[in-house]
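Morning!

This is the sequence you dropped in the shared folder:
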Amino acid sequence: MNWLFFSIATAILWGAAELFYKKGAQPHEKFSHLKICVWVGIVMGAHAIFTLLTQDINYNPINIIRYLPVSLFYIISMAFSYFGMRFLEESISDPIENTAGVICALLFVIFLNETIAPLTWVAIGIITVGVLGVSFLENKGDTPRKKRLGKKLAIIAFCMPFVYALLDAFGTFLDDAFFLIEDVANSPLVDVTTENIEAVANTSYELTFALFALGLFIFMKAKKVKFGPVPQHKDKILAAVFETAGQFTYVYALGGVDAVAAPILSSVCVVSLLLSRIFLKEKLSWKTYIFIAIVIIGILLMAVSEEL
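The structure's back. Tokens below.
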């Protein structure tokens, strides 16, 4: 039953990561979202080096280039997410971002002509109702966010979780359809087996993130952006650590009973919602909470339907 422990741990770790991402994405700090990317790249790069030093995964550096399309979708989606977090409540952004699974399922239908189970269509319908409801309430009239940020920035901020969901879905689609496939001989990755392919892909992603972070650091130094002492970045660092730790436990969680593990892993937005309510004191209208609950129910239902 170790997989159950790792499933719960993953949901908690990633939920905690979302909390610290939000705390680190300060609206008044112009480059806070890019600084988060730098810290995530540092921690992920350190984990990748640790993996290479402690595990014999027969890693070929050319896989950084081979896996680049997937890595870029994931990394850029996260950068957009961090930008949105500067202005948007985590209680709203995280459930919307978790609709990436819906978009990914639709991509398989559109591009690979795969069929979707009836229960999955029901889940997609439920999620759509919830997202449309949140969108309607957020964009109706003069919301507090519009008054605080101005109409243009408020709209841009609200679009960020949707951009994240779209880009993350394309990354997952490429991953599942072309890279992390059962017939490893046809994977674009080289020197991979069924035993090491996931570790090779994850290491390539983490090394790419580290290089991306280095590029951002050089860019901000050229712009004369002040970083300040490390203790000032504790929330950003903790977010990066929780993110990477969750990625580690996620691999072991996948070894369990899918019909049980999947909804637990998909409950990250529930954990994030509770933590943001407790620690960030976020308060939304009761109507918005109802539609967010509808989105979460749809996500959990979809996770179950996909594994039945």
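Headline: DSSP finds 14 helices and no strands in the chain.

More detail when I'm at my desk.
O.
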